[in-house]
Design brief:
With 131 residues, this protein is an alpha+beta fold. The chain folds into two domains: 59 residues, no CATH class; 46 residues, no CATH class. Helix content is 22%, strand content 27%. The chain is built from three helices and seven strands; from the N terminus they run E-E-H-E-H-E-E-E-H-E. It has a three-stranded antiparallel β-sheet, with no helix packed on it. A two-stranded antiparallel ribbon has the order 1-2. 2% of the residues are buried. This is Phosphofructokinase domain-containing protein. Keywords: Cytoplasm, Glycolysis. One of its GO terms (molecular function) is 6-phosphofructokinase activity.
C-alpha cells in the first residue's frame, strides 16, 4: 500500500513492477574513485543573457565543464578524486516532466551516497528569480 497526501491507496500491478526497477549507474560513477577532466567554461548561447545567467548561477556560470571518466581511463590531465567529503548538491527542475528525469535524480542520489553517506541531494522546483 502507498499513499497520496496521507490517503492510503492500493498500487496497480504496473506501479508495483515500476517500483522495483533499479536504474544502473554510469561506469564513471561506480566505485569510490572518480576521474574528472575539466573542459571549456560554461557560456550562454546569447551573449546578451550572460549577465542574467551569471547572477542566477554565481557559483557555476563561467566555471569549467566537468567530464566524468571511467576510473580506469588513462587521460593525462584528468584529476583523480579519492577523498569524498560530505557535500550538498542542488538539482534544479524546470517545472515539467522530462523523460529519464527520475533516473537522473536516482543515479545522482545513489552516487552521492556511495561516495559519502552524509552527502545531501536537494531538489528545487519553480522559477529562478534574479536577486
Amino acid at each position: 500500500m502507498d499513499s497520496d497526501y496521507g490517503i492510503p491507496r492500493e498500487l496497480s500491478d504496473l506501479q508495483k513492477l515500476r517500483s522495483q526497477y533499479q536504474p544502473q549507474l554510469p561506469p564513471c560513477l561506480e566505485g569510490t574513485t572518480v576521474r574528472v577532466e575539466f573542459g571549456d567554461t560554461t557560456t550562454s548561447l546569447d551573449p546578451a543573457d550572460a549577465h542574467t545567467i551569471a547572477r542566477a548561477f554565481p557559483h557555476t556560470y563561467g566555471k569549467p565543464l566537468a567530464h566524468f571518466l571511467r576510473a580506469t581511463a588513462k587521460v593525462p590531465d584528468a584529476q583523480i578524486i579519492t577523498e569524498h567529503p560530505a557535500i550538498r548538491v542542488g538539482l534544479v527542475f524546470c517545472g515539467r516532466q522530462s523523460p529519464g528525469g527520475h533516473n537522473v535524480v536516482w543515479g545522482l542520489h545513489k552516487a552521492l551516497k556511495i561516495h559519502n553517506p552524509n552527502s545531501t541531494l536537494l531538489g528545487f522546483l519553480g522559477k529562478l528569480h534574479s536577486v
